[in-house]
């Protein structure tokens, strides 16, 4: 089920037994044939992982609803060209008893062998990557008016159709919409977005999906059994993972792995990993555990050992991403999530995930993803990988945004992590070695954030963890200078010429409480996310002591801006109701009240001015 170049007559040689469901061509002694060409599917059921497409085609052929153009898209090596040839065989299927198109190609028809070898006169294959011009398409269209020589339909298979020029696509449009009844088109592409929508709308589209790792590993195991070349299951899974859903890539890697055996023995998973340049995934899990448990020395040493053993830093970072993704799935879906990993690995992942919240795991995954990009572009990938692991350790030690807000407010930390143990327990790893179990940081619901870093006295167990308690008042020095009202705070900010902060405080701060060392407010809609931090820094700079600024309070007063607007509106209404203003507006129709200015102070008598001068 591979999407490779068209094989010639020598490509159908077979040097081994047939895999059930496949029909390698008879050998003529031409030499070894690679697995990717030897085990190409010969019937639609052999297309592993493409059951939806096979079901649709089966129903369409059975109902006689056969489209005049098909568009096959998918990644490299997924089976696009193979599927195109199978469709061409199905359209022209003919035996002594069957004279109609049929999706059942077993036993082969009289045209099947020639179509498989790309030598049938009525089935033309064209590589659009090398023939991109409008002249090539016109040459193809000139032959459409002629009837098939021997088959039922003339079938045109155009591979990598997205490589055609705009003029070539335009020349194809009219014929593609209304082709002669004896003509069928089959297109294949890896870049479906580059195909004009005018072409896509005239075709029946099939998206060939990547083959799942488990399905691909089982397929490789059957081929190994047929070839008499055993490979350990973990090695086959590593090949399936490296192939990324491409059957051709997997078979090419399997061809390379089979020759790793010495004396015809079994190929071990370690040999496959060495061939692929992969790190032992058990050791990658050890590295991840050390990073998440803040064992920096162990994590960096393990990373260096894996790099010295030949591990590719890019592949290593991708493995870390895979494990973090698996931990997130386990946290979200529970231990029964389908991960395709060994039971021992899943048990370790569950243990590691218990110490982190879902949001924390998402943050760790994003950190590792950024590290992967850095490793790909860095001049020294190994150093970039070390920095990525260090950032991962730092991110694992950070509290969640919710916990940070609670800590700032003096509230207890949320119980989202596993209970802390006095001593780390040892859990057996997949290789039998003991690994320290993930341990969550200790959470003390009784502890509270206290201003000025002064030690907190013992708090009764029944005292609510709130910074408004009497105990906190005792912790704040009486001589602490600071604003006593929001207006005084705004005045201090204006004196310090912090104009941006002054405007934000006037617009967005809905004061709840203000006392020495602590300010609580409810942010108005649209408030900057860093307003609380800016206020805390300003107050600390002004008073020389730390201030607790809580931006999560509720039921705040109106903002200064809202109060000023309300007072101005009330003053305007009062002025408009003044009898003198009513008379003035009546005397001058169309007049409007533009602004209200305070009356000037009355002039002092001359005698008073002289006394003032004296």
Topology diagram in text:
Blueprint: H1 35-38, H2 51-63, E1 69-73, H3 80-91, H4 112-116, E2 123-127, H5 134-142, E3 154-159, H6 166-177, E4 183-189, H7 197-200, E5 204-207, H8 213-227, H9 233-243, H10 247-258, H11 269-276, H12 281-292, H13 296-308, H14 313-333, H15 343-353, H16 358-377, H17 381-397, H18 401-409, E6 426-428, E7 434-436, H19 470-475, H20 486-495, H21 499-508, E8 509-515, E9 518-523, H22 531-543, E10 548-550, H23 560-577, H24 579-587, H25 606-613
Parallel strand pairs: 1-4, 1-5, 2-3, 3-4, 9-10
Antiparallel strand pairs: 6-7, 8-9
Helix pairs in contact: 5-6, 8-9, 9-10, 9-11, 12-13, 12-14, 12-15, 13-17, 14-15, 14-16, 16-17, 20-21
The CATH topology name of the domain at 41-207 reads Rossmann fold
Estimated radius of gyration: 38 Å
CATH class of the domain at 41-207: Alpha Beta
CATH architecture of the domain at 41-207: 3-Layer(aba) Sandwich
Report the sheet-strand fraction.
5-15%
Q: Judging from the principal axes of the Cα atoms, what is the shape?
A: flat
Question: Concise description?
Answer:
This protein is α/β, with parallel strands linked by helices and 614 residues long. It is built from 25 helices and ten strands.
């Amino acid at each position: 089920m591979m999407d490779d170049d068209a094989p010639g007559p020598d490509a159908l040689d077979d040097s081994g037994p047939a895999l059930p469901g496949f029909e390698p061509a008879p050998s003529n002694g031409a030499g070894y044939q690679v697995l990717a060409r030897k085990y190409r599917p010969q019937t639609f059921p052999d297309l592993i992982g493409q059951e939806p497409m096979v079901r649709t085609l089966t129903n369409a052929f059975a109902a006689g609803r056969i489209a005049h153009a098909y568009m096959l898209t998918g990644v490299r090596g997924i089976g696009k060209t193979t599927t195109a040839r199978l469709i061409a065989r199905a359209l022209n299927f003919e035996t002594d008893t069957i004279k109609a198109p049929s999706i059942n190609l077993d036993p082969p028809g009289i045209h099947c062998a020639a179509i498989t070898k790309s030598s049938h006169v009525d089935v033309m294959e064209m590589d659009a990557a090398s023939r991109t011009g409008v002249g090539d398409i016109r040459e193809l269209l000139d032959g459409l008016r002629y009837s098939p020589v021997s088959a039922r339909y003339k079938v045109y298979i155009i591979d990598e159709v997205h490589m055609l020029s705009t003029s070539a696509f335009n020349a194809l449009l009219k014929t593609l919409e209304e082709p002669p009844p004896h003509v069928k088109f089959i297109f294949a592409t890896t870049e479906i977005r580059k195909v004009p929508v005018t072409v896509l709308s005239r075709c029946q589209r099939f998206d060939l999906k990547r083959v799942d790792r488990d399905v691909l590993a089982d397929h490789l195991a059957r081929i190994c059994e047929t070839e008499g070349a055993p490979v350990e299951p973990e090695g086959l899974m590593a090949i399936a993972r490296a192939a990324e859903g491409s059957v051709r890539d997997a078979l090419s890697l399997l061809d390379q792995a089979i020759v790793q055996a010495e004396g015809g023995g079994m190929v071990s998973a370690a040999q496959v990993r060495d061939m692929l340049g992969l790190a032992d995934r058990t050791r990658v899990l050890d590295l991840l555990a050390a990073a998440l448990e803040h064992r920096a020395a162990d994590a960096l040493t393990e990373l260096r050992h894996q790099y010295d053993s030949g591990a590719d830093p890019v592949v290593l970072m991708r493995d870390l991403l895979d494990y973090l993704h698996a931990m997130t799935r386990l946290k979200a879906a529970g231990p029964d999530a389908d991960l395709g990993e060994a039971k021992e690995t899943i048990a370790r992942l569950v243990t590691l995930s218990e110490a982190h919240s879902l949001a924390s795991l998402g943050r760790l995954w994003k950190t590792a993803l950024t590290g992967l990009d850095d490793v790909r572009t860095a001049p020294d990938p190994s150093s970039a990988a070390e920095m990525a692991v260090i950032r991962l350790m730092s991110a694992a030690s950070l509290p969640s945004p919710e916990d940070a807000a609670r800590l700032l407010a003096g509230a207890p930390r949320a119980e989202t992590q596993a209970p802390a143990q006095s001593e780390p327990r040892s859990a057996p790893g997949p290789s039998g070695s003991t690994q320290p179990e993930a341990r969550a940081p200790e959470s003390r619901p009784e502890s509270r954030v206290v201003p000025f870093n002064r030690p907190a006295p013992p708090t009764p167990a029944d005292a609510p963890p709130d910074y408004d308690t009497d105990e906190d008042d005792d912790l704040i020095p009486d001589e602490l200078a600071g604003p006593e009202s929001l207006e005084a705070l705004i005045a201090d900010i204006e004196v310090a010429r912090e104009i941006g902060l002054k405007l934000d405080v006037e617009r967005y701060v809905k004061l709840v409480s203000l006392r020495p060392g602590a300010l609580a407010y409810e942010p108005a809609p649209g408030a900057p996310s860093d307003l609380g931090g800016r206020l805390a820094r300003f107050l600390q700079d002004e008073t020389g002591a730390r201030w607790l600024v809580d931006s999560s309070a509720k039921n705040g007063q109106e903002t200064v801006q809202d109060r000023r607007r309300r007072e101005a509106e009330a003053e305007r209404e009062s002025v408009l109701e003044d009898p003198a203003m009513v008379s003035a507006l009546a005397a001058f129709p169309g007049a409007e009240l533009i602004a209200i200015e305070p009356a000037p102070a009355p002039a002092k008598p001359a005698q008073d001015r002289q006394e003032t001068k004296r």
